[in-house]
Amino acid sequence: MTVFLPVVVGLIFTASFLSGQCVLQAISAESGDTLPDSFIGFESVPDKVADGSVVRVRYQCSRPCQLAVEILVSTLRKTDLVVFRRKWTSSTPRVYKTQQVLLRLPQSISNHHRYASRNMSDTQNATVRARLDYLEEGSEISPQHGSMLRIYEVQQVLPLSVWPSPPPTGCLSWSAQLLGQMADNRILQCPHESDVIDVLKFPLACTGENFGVVHRFQPFINGALERARLHAVTRPSVAFSVWIYLLKGCQKNHCGIVHHVNQKRLFDSVLIQLTDTGDLIIQARMTTGEDEAFRAIVMLPLWKWIRLDCYILDSKVQLNAAWDNETRSFEYKFQNIIHYDDTDGHFVIGGGKYMSGISGYFGPFKYHRLGTKEIKNPLHPKSTLQELDRTHLECREMRAFTNAFLQVVSEDHQLSSNNKTVCTNDFPGLWAQFQDKDKTCAEAWNLETQLKYSVLFQFLLRKEDRIRTGHLGMNNLGGTLFHLAVSTLFQEHEAPMEMSATSLELLKASSCFGNHRASLLLAAIFLSGLGHPVDQEQGHVYSLIGAVGDDRFALMHAGYKHTHGADGFPQDLDMANCYYANIGGQCSIDSYRSHENKRRLGMMLFWGQNGVSKDTMSAVKWIERSAMQMKDPSAMYDYSLLLMKGQGVKRNYTQGFQLMKKAAAMGSINALNGLGWYHGSVLKDHKKAVKYFEQAALNGSDDGMYNLGVYHLSGKHPNKPQRNESAAFELFLNASRLGHTAASVEVAGYLSTGSLEGVSQDVQRAVIMLTKVCEQNGHLGFTIREALQAYLQGSWQESLVKYVLAAETGLGLAQINAAHLCEELNLSYDCQRRYHSFSLLNSDPHPPTLLKMGDYYYSSSSSSTREDSLSLAEQAVSMYSRAALAGSPQGMFNLAVLVREGYVLPQSTLHLFNASRHDEPDSVMEKILGRCAQLEDENAVAPCSLALFGLQMGKALSSMTQNRAQLLLAYASILSIIVFAVVVPFQACLEHKWKAATQRGRASLGAQPVEENPRLSVNVLQQLQLSSDLAVTLSGVCLCACWTMLFYHLL
């Protein structure tokens, strides 16, 4: 045992020495022997590097040192190419200094935009690097330390085209000089420009209201074409051709087909109108300033595609109207020459602000600005437009025989073989199930019609009793068919679920009877493959039918498709604006009719909202009780309105006026607007009305701003009696920023036409404003609420239908829910991807959708070719990056996973995490996971904290294994763990023996002596216990040293 103790003590000293040595080496390696009073940094660096830029460097050396500033660029052939280096020395230690460095770039870069160079290609970014090196004796850089400090700044390179081009100081090669001369002598040509314009490339649905496609024509860029156009202003030579399809005759005296409105808000050349008798009127403005017109007696037919060609030459106008392969020509010569300037104002196809349009469709519209002898304008897309015509024909047939059926049933005509007005081809097999009923039919249909529309015919037979009692007629037949179709839409026994053929026929019949939610649902089914094969042509047909039916959702659907160019609809903001403007006008009327304080209990009772039955008397009592307390100005205002309008109470202007005045005095802004309305509409005192509106507007009321704008627009402002559209526009614009619906519609109208001086045309902005207005209409809210209620009640199919109807309008929330239900109902994967993709088109997509699409692209990349795989991976990175930018921890975690797998993130994504492409992958992952760990909460799905800890542990262990002493310490720690595993049980055994020996020693005091020496045994046990304690202590020291080093590297 005397030998064992020195060995153990030696091991303890050796372990302590190794631990201290490891710590010192680690600290030395991390610090790089850099003294704390030596540093270098950039004081200013230009945003973009160019020849002549200036960099300011601040530094301080602890001893004589050499400093340098370098520029490194990357080209297509080389990376980190040093193109500039500036060195200087500093011999004064521990003195803070600043050095200004002028950056000079080589001729191969600075003159690259003028001459071709084989040595340099266009660079995208550059790295400005500064470094500090210590000097030994003799001004030599210390070989022991190398570059002690380095800093980097990654900058954008100034585009070569905007660099100054100083004359080259040296001679260029012959080839470079030749290429430069060829570039100097090149004749610049204008881009191709044509006088032939396809104004409409896709069918346009017109509802017969004041909404149409607005188009402005700009002057030609080409000088020759522009001179020809200016010459044609007083000697016009133009031609245009348009296809139309009339569903109804003109309901007014005149309906617009094409009209031109100039900057003075006057009709200009040319104006084509449809009369109530089906004739055409063509009006033009003469060079004398007068308007002349002529009437073409043509009697255009309904339900046929008609082509109208118009040729204008000087004072002559030729009009050709063609349908059914026959052409009717009309020619007229005005007394004076026509004045025609298509850049003055704007053209409108269909209805506009000053004229309602036709009810029907527009086909292709081709315009020759400089005229032509013959216009080539075929019907396109021909198959779609022919299918549209065929569908309308079927609907007319369906309505005709249904109307006859209803008439016969209502008159109680029973089937009789002796009655000649009744069909005899009744196919008894079909009617066998109705033997107990009176069976009826009329000669309006025959066997062929019955077979063609058998689903509808069976439905009518089943509902014969309801028809006879008057509970089912032409007015509510469409809605009844729609609800029946939705209830049996999918065949549940199929996997995946498929659309029922019977439901599809019922939806088509419902569409024909005027329920255009059915038209929109059919369009969604055919465009998305929702339980049915994709048929884009049929989808376009029913989209147009729904839009021409003036259905809010169908109009929003058409506007949404044209805004984004989805599902085969061309991207056309002018057409999108036409549809959205229609919805905007309807939403403006809705918001005017609705009361602004429906949230109160009295209003809920009054309007019957949120499951509360409508009870006008109870509502009025609640409002009256609250108002008469004279404490709530909102309730006082509500009750004063009811008194003035006589809703639920007897009309009393005097009491209502007094109550409203008190509410205004108590600070109710709505009451100020109400007083303005009362004085302006009832008392006709516009001076006081404007006064109250101005007070409301000054208090931030959007209604007050809008009402003041209306006064300026109408010219009834008492202080400024003249019409002032500029002042009205400014007020409308301010009100629209506060969310006023009607004001937003007015502003969008000015932006779409650009007719107001100082307001340029901005159709995109107009569409964005109208989209926000349309998404606030109450019909969407009701549909979403009904869809949610159906989902909670377990009617998932009905919920899916309602969410799909709302999703087709572009509402992001509905699109997400529709995609989820497509997955739950086991529909095709294309259905899920479709609505997730559509939701990405919104300005603020939901992060879960971005993650879903990112997962889709990532999973698709693994099964694609190399080229497609790279493209899909880039899209996955884009989706995850957008989700991360929206604050999604899961998106950040997915980006970290992609970095670990070797994907290189784009610079825009790296900037989100203060990383760059020069960073190592582990460093990029650490920054991403660090940001992710800061955002995730207790219920987070992404285990960013665990991943970050694992990454840092791996880096720490890797750093430890790179040093021999630390590696030896790591091995010693492993050995220590083994020692613990062996010694601890051994100690327990020794402790047990020690207790037994002690007990024997105590027992031996009163007993006879034995041959064995108990003291010797106890001494041995004590020595073994001491040795095991020392071994455990040594192992603990090793483990402590190892963990100390590990935590040092972690921190």
Secondary structure: elements and pairs:
Blueprint lengths: L3 H28 L7 E6 L3 E2 L4 E7 L4 E9 L7 E10 L6 E6 L4 H4 L14 E10 L12 E11 L16 H11 L11 E5 L3 E4 L4 E4 L7 H9 L5 E10 L7 E8 L5 E9 L4 E6 L5 E6 L8 E9 L2 E8 L2 E8 L12 E5 L8 E10 L13 H29 L17 H4 L15 H6 L1 H9 L1 H5 L5 H14 L2 E2 L6 E2 L1 H12 L3 H13 L7 H13 L3 H13 L8 H21 L7 H7 L8 H13 L4 H13 L7 H13 L3 H14 L3 H13 L3 H13 L10 H13 L3 H13 L9 H12 L3 H15 L3 H12 L4 H13 L4 H12 L6 H15 L4 H20 L3 H12 L6 H5 L9 H15 L8 H17 L3 H41 L9 H37 L1
Parallel strand pairs: 2-8
Antiparallel strand pairs: 1-3, 3-6, 4-5, 4-7, 7-8, 9-21, 10-21, 11-20, 12-17, 12-21, 13-14, 13-20, 14-15, 15-16, 17-18, 18-19, 22-23
Helix pairs in contact: 1-37, 5-13, 10-11, 11-12, 12-13, 13-14, 14-15, 15-24, 15-25, 16-17, 17-18, 18-19, 19-20, 20-21, 21-22, 22-23, 23-24, 24-25, 26-27, 27-28, 28-29, 29-30, 30-31, 31-32, 32-34, 34-35, 35-37, 36-37
